[in-house]
Every structure is written in C-alpha cells, then in structure tokens.
Amino acid sequence: MKPEKQLLNGDEAVALAALHAGVSLGTGYPGTPSTEILETFDHLGGKAQWSPNEKVALEVGLGVAFAGGRALVTMKHVGLNVAADPFFTATYTDVDGGLVLVSADDPGMASSQNEQDNRHYARAAVAPMLEPCDSQQAYDYTLAAFEISGRWKIPVILRLTTRVCHSKTLVSPRSDVAQPAAPDFKRNVPSRVMIPAYAKPAHHRLRIKMAEIAAWNDAEGFNQRIDNGKSLGIISSGIAAVHAMEAAPEASHLVIGMTYPLPIETIRKFADGVERLVVVEEGDPVLFESLLAAGIPAEGKPEMYRFGELNVQRVRRILAGDTTPEPVPPKGKPPELCQGCSHRDVFEVLRDMDCIVSGDIGCYTLGMLPPFSAMDTCVCMGASIGVGLGMRHTLPADQARRVVSVIGDSTFVHSGITGLAEMVYNPPETGHVVVILDNGTTAMTGQQEHPGTGRTLNHDPTGKISFEALGKAMGIQNVLTLDRFTDGHRLEAVLKDLLAKPETSLVVVRQPCVLAAPKIRFYEKAAIEKMNQACAAMPAE
Amino acid sequence: MNKVTNIVLGGLGGQGVLTASDILADVVFRAGYDVKKSELHGMSQRGGSVSSDVRYGPVVHSPMVPLGEADFLLVLEPTQVDVNKPVLRPEGVLIPPDVIPPDGLKNKKSFNVAMLGALSAFLDIPESIWLDAIHARLAAKLHRLNDEAFAYGRQAARARFHLS
Ligand SMILES: Cc1ncc(C[n+]2csc(CCOP(=O)(O)OP(=O)(O)O)c2C)c(N)n1
Ligand code: SF4
Questions:
Q1: Which of A162, A163, A242 sits opposite B61 (nearest CB)?
Q2: Of the bound ligands, which one is closest to the alpha carbon of residue A384?
Q3: What is the pTM of this model?
Q4: β-bridge pairing A432-438 and A6-9
Q5: ipTM for the complex?
Q6: Do A335 and B43 touch (CB under 8 A)?
Q7: What domains can be seen in chain B, in order of their start residue?
Q8: Each residue of B18-61: pLDDT tens digit?
Q9: Chain B residue numbers touching A166 (CB-CB < 8 A)
Q10: Sheet containing B49-57: which strands, arranged edge to edge?
Q11: Domains of chain A
C-alpha cells in the first residue's frame, strides 16, 4: 500500500522521518523554530526527551550512536553554540548507529537573539550538512542524513530555517525505509577515546571521509538541475531555492541539497553552461565565497540582503542588482506579558526600586518593555548571573548594590547553575542577588517541561530538582522562597533587605504561568491517579 | 487554471488565525491542489500580531505571499487591517472582521470559522470539503457550533459582497 500524502510542516516531517528511520531516542532542548520536532516525534510514538540544555542533549545522542542506535538531536541555531564543544570532537569519532543534529536557524530573528548562519558550523566542525527547502525534502533529507551518518560513521547536520520549520507543504512518506541493526556495544577505543594519540589519526580519517562524501555528493547527491537556457543561471539551497524558482522561472537553476561538502564539479559544469551565474542564498555569503575559492566566477548579493529573510520580491531585487531602500512594512502589534502573568509584579517592583537588572531570555524578557522598562541586559541563556556579577565587581558600591540578576526556571536549569557556582566562588564585595522566576514551565517556547518541573517531555512524573536545596548545597548564604499567591507582596521588602547585605542571595519567586496553570493542574492530577492505581495494584505482603 | 491563488489571514495572537489557516490549507489540499502554508508565530500567545499565508494552485514554489500579490486578505481584528493591507494586490479582496455582525454568533470562539465561511463564498470549492476540514481540526463537541458559524459567515459575505 502506498502511504498517503500528508500536509505537514517541516518539523513534523522531520519527526515522521525519524520514526520511519527507526530512531531509538530523540533528545534536544526547546527553541523556536525547532521545538515541535521532538513533541511530534513523541506524539507519533517515538521516544523523546528534553535535556537540560543542548550540550547534554548532544552528549546523550552521541552515546545512543556509540551504542549502535540512531539518535536525533534537535535545537535552535544558538543551541549549537552551547553544544559546540562536544560537536567539534564528535565529528572525529566513529558514530556507529547514526547521529543527526537538527539546527533550526532563524534568519530574520522571528524569535531569537541573533541571526547567526549555522552553515559556518558544518565547515568549522567538519560535518556534512543537508538543507531542505520544504517538508518533502525535510522528510527525505532526514532519512538520507541517517543513511549517510551510518555509512560514514559521522554526525550529520540537518539545517532547517524558520520558514521550512513552520511552513506546511505536502509530503509523500516512503514505505520502504531500511531499518537499523539492533543496538549492540562494539569496543573501539582508538575511534572513540579522543586523546591526542588517537585524535591525530582521527582528524585524518575525518578528512578522508569528507573527501568521499564530496565525491558521493557530485555523483549521486541531491542536486536538482533545471535547464532553461543560457542567459541566467541561479545556484541556491534551502528556502532560497523556492523563492528563486518563483522569482525567475525563465532562468536555469541548480539547487544544492548537501551544502557541505559541496558538489563542486556539478556546480562547475552548471556554471560553464550559463552566461551569468548568480548565487541566491539567505544570510552570510557562504556558498558564494566557496565558489570564489574554487575559482568559479559568480555574482553574490548586495550586502543589504545579508540581513533578514529572503522572499520572492527580495530575490527579484537581487537579480536586478537593486540596492534602493526596500519598502518598510507597517509595524504590527508587539507581544506583551499576558494579563495576570506572574512576571508582571516582579518587574513592577524592580522598576520601582530602580534596580539595575541583569536579565535573561524567556517570556520575562518582555519586562524590558513599558510599562516596566525593567531590564538592562539580555545576551544569551544564563548570562544574567555572570553579567550581573561582573557589574557588581566593577560598579561603585552604591550602584553595585542595585544590581539584581533575573532568570527563568528553564533558563536556570539550562545554564544558570554554573553562574551560581561563580557567585559562591567569587562573591562581589557587595554580595549579589539572583532571582529565579519559577513559573513551572518553559513558557516562551510553548510550555515545555524541564528538570525543575518534575515531569518528562510527555508530562509523566519523574525526578525534580529543588532550586532551593541546590542553592543551599552550593553554599549560597540566603536562600528564600516567595510564593506569589501567599507572600508576593513581600517581594519589595525582601529585596530591600537582601540588597543591603554584602552576602550572596537566591530568591525563588514561584507562581505558575497563567496560560500553563490549567494544564499543570491536569498533569498533577493525572500523576496522583496513576500512583494510586499503581498502589492498588501492588500485592499485599 | 495554472495560476496560484494567494490568501493571507491576519489578526492577533489568541484569535485562532493559525487554526483558521490550518483548516484553509487542509481544504485546498482535500480539493486536490498543491498547497503551501506559512506563518510567523514566534510569540503569538502573548497577543502580538499574527499572520499566515496560504497559497494553492497546480504548483506552488515559495510558501510566502509576495507583497502586493494577495488575492484575498482575511483580517480578524480591526487594528490589523492597515498592518496587513500592503500584501493585497490592487484588485484583491479585503474581507474585514465586520463582515460578521458582532452579535451574529452564538459563541465568539467560532469567529475564526465564521470568517472562513465568509472566504468560502468567494472560492469554488464544495461546501462539504470545508466542513470535513473543520471537523478534522476541531473536537467533535464543537462541530455543531462551528458548522453554524461557517454557514453564517458564508451567508453574511454573500449579502455584503453581493455574491450569488
Ligand atoms: C541556547 C538557547 N537555547 C534555546 C533558546 C530558546 N529559549 C529562549 S528562552 C527559553 C526558556 C524560557 O523558559 P524560562 O526560563 O522558564 O522562562 P519563561 O519563558 O517560562 O518565562 C528558551 C527555550 C535560546 N534562546 N538559546
Ligand atoms: S505565557 Fe505565561 S509566562 Fe509567558 S507572558 Fe503569558 S503568563 Fe507570562
């Protein structure tokens, strides 16, 4: 029976392919636009887990692959910065089962703090990279990524972008996907223990693998060529390809599926057949510079198109060499903290106390907007604590005593714990105050669980980290909890007291996110019912 | 017909814009077209502007409707009309929220489906396909309410735009 066509977004297509590829475990950390991959994989019956952060997610995935299983590891683009350390050495190792890392980039910053182009990582870490342009390719390339990973024992990056993740297009699934062998440990010390003596030959092996993969990419890679005459040829990849095909139906097109290592001979042949060759790519001129380096003369795009997403009209402008100012679309309504959001009161207090707020990333970053205007820095997840400490060390004492670090619960588990270690180890003379805004969920990305909620990705009960117990065990001098329902009004007095002390303090402000609260109550009730059933089923002694 | 039809839906987070565009994409898929649907929904749960593009035809390339090329613009919130208008082509059809009279609906939650009803009056797709897609997307207990909202919107648009 031929499987039916489905209308899926890119994330759902990756999840479906992972299921068909027999992935043993999906790991990741939430981040728009990648979050729905693991959620869908779980819904479809796959085994998926949220890790505390992307580095751990990748390490778990690497372990799965070393054990002979297939691992899918998902994250947004900035997540790969966190996971970069294991990633750069994972490529030296031989992964046995298969390891596919999804990097979901966000050109245009629909929901991110930067628009870094993770194509640079493929080259820097030496990993093959596939770039789908729609959901069908997201499905096909996920399957292909596992095949390539298994064949060359190498981690593969599947690079998606916001438009691919969040656009729905038609997908014809395959019914004939080869299944991986059952996991089985095979000892292979030289290819997995990366001491210099083993890493040196491993680096050479890696370069040989890449040369083979480049040859494969030229011979049988996913390169789509449309010949339409000689006057204009366009080279593109990913979402830029579909914009280009629409903007210039009269042109010849070469769409590259695997963008690292490049099918350079295929490109050269295409280039030789056209009079004018233009590279249409979103973000940095990565493809363009690779062509130049290979001695293939091509036109890139004017610098102004490095910024933001491409679309059909921008591609038309690139092809026309148009650098006049672009029309500015009317500004929509910006998001704001929900009415009744627990973060609101906290930022009112911080504003009224004229605190210097070292902030972090999450819904609560909206505390920087009026009427609160109560956040002074926000860089990356976890930075609130280190940046706050740095300011405390440097500012004159009267200003230093106003500095507060504010961090969400999911963000705290992701990368705030090492900040606390720094605070205990190198306390500023004026002390410091860290506030955890514990709303019981990862609200920003759509209410995912994390190790502080005590529930797994699919909301079943599991181990739970107590922030207060952790703070005490780490040696923080004052550890306080404020339940906003019962003692929220005390926040100002508590902060005043702590800011006046030259001591280290951790304040956990606790109240569920109002959007998540009904679901949290539902999960809690379900957990109790499950426990009661289990007790009832236990044989009496 | 080998032309692509471009439809843009706009509104605010929480209004059901994305549910409506999901249903619409499913409708044209069921009607046998190639379809692409795109949306930006970074932080829509916090009430900001939300919009979604649905394009269908024999072959669709880009998932985004180019500026000034929308055939239909469906807006669920009065303040969002001007924000979205540049996407409409000069002869394109604007379906504003007041096409549905404020007290015409039993339940405001089915407003997005009523707006789809209004859009359906312009498109040559059998009503049964619309209802199938609505039922596939919404819980069974909501079907009657939304069937009524859909019929109401379809009728309201016919009257407002003098369609047969
Ligand atoms: C390295 C990295 N991974 C993921 C993200 C996406 N992201 C931003 S903040 C955040 C967590 C927000 O949760 P929390 O700290 O609990 O705050 P809330 O939104 O609940 O207020 C996530 C997942 C990111 N910006 N950077
Ligand atoms: S989703 Fe939750 S945490 Fe985010 S603004 Fe709304 S109430 Fe606050």
A1: A242
A2: 1
A3: 0.97
A4: unpaired
A5: 0.95
A6: yes
A7: 5-158 (3.40.920.10)
A8: 999 999 999 999 999 999 999 976 565 678 899 999 999 999 99
A9: 38-41
A10: A6-9, A168-171, B34-40, B49-57, B5-12, B70-75, B88-95
A11: 6-178+192-220 (3.40.50.970), 223-320 (3.40.50.920), 342-527 (3.40.50.970)
